[in-house]
Amino acid sequence: MIKLTNRTRDLMDRPMDRTMDLMNRTRDLGDRTRDILSRARYKNEKLAYIYLTDRSRSLAQDLIKLSSDRNLDSELLYFKDFKKSIDRYFNDFDYLVFIMASGIAIRTIAPFIRDKFTDPAVIVMDELGINVISILGGHMAGANEMTAYIANKIGGNPVITTATDINDKGAFDLLVKKLGANVDNIRELSLKYNSSILKGQGPYIYIDPDLRDLVIGIDGWEKSIRGFKNIDDRVIDLNYEINNNSQDESKTNYGIIVISDKLDINKTEFAYLFDIQDSKCEIIRLVPRINVLGIGCRKNTASQVLDMAINTYLEGQNIDVKSIDMVGSIDLKRHERAILDFCDKESVKSEFFASDQLVDYEDLYERSDFVKKVTGVSSVAEPSCHILCEGNLIGKKYKKDGITLSLGRYKRWNR
């Protein structure tokens, strides 16, 4: 038997101690990352309850208390006060809930209604909470979902008249909203494919394998694609599939919806699926906002230089710029014009982190003494990206001409 000295035992224990320290530190970093991320990614939706009577005010107050499980900035407004600033509320709020007769509400907002894709959700309910009615913005603004939510809270009757909803079908515009996606011609495509879905001729839908687990984890996903024809890599000959199911000449409104963050699907492993030999079939790309960018750059970098660098970087990764949901950097760059211009141009959110937030992650990535001297932390782009995507970085880092970029993808879908 080999006898171990205390010194030997101490040497043997050290690697395990270091392993445990590393595991505890990694766990702690993960918790802090999620905490920072929850503050960075999600801004509370704004909801206004507009009341007329004491009873309707009391109901609104109850609803505010009952809605504590949802990220809502709720405001209580007397009807006359609302009328004085109606244009501001139409522009700044996500939901307007009128607790009064529907005729009063509709006549009041009528001059301000512009477009279903930009107007807020409008809901009307009676002061007893018997009926909760979705009036405007059922899909894109979320009125139908909020109507069901409110009705459930008070035991009311949700009144929803949207054709796809009452027929228990998904809808193209609802799918776009669920994904936070970018798509051209959404108005025409929504009309076309929602009609097809109601006729039982819904379009095919294909999810990029890289995104499949993330997308199908979206809350209410299965419901949102009812009426669509789901396909995957097991479909060997989509030409045969489509031709075999579209002999009826009246079936002219069919196509394939491809959910992908790729810039060019022809450069993907699943490109063969979409070599469709049928002029009647169209391919529609939905680009979900699921990616993030960490950015580091020299002070006063020209906007066009940063924009070109980002697009060059993303093109090299075959990632569509429309998939970028948020950019992150150090708080010293909060007013960096190039970053702000990119965010404005691409409608991207931004979050800027203090150096003491980034320093926890600098050991995980390439360090720079120069960056450390200027910012107080030896790496900016990758730690910023790490926080935004909970460490799920994808692709190689970009580093050129004083610009550093890091690409990541969300681990969880919580829009």
UniProtKB/TrEMBL annotation:
Database matches in SUPFAM superfamilies: CbiG N-terminal domain-like (SSF159672), CobE/GbiG C-terminal domain-like (SSF159664)
InterPro entries, per the entry: CbiG_hydrolase (IPR052553), CbiG_N (IPR021744), CobE/GbiG_C (IPR002750), CobE/GbiG_C_sf (IPR036518), GbiG_N_sf (IPR038029)
Origin superkingdom: Bacteria
Organism placement in taxonomy: Bacteria, Bacillati, Bacillota, Clostridia, Peptostreptococcales
A biological-process GO annotation: cobalamin biosynthetic process
The organism of origin for this protein: Peptostreptococcus anaerobius 653-L
A Pfam family hit: CbiG_N
Stretches assigned to the Cobalamin synthesis G N-terminal domain: 86-165
CobE/GbiG C-terminal domain ranges (all copies): 292-407
Protein name: CbiG
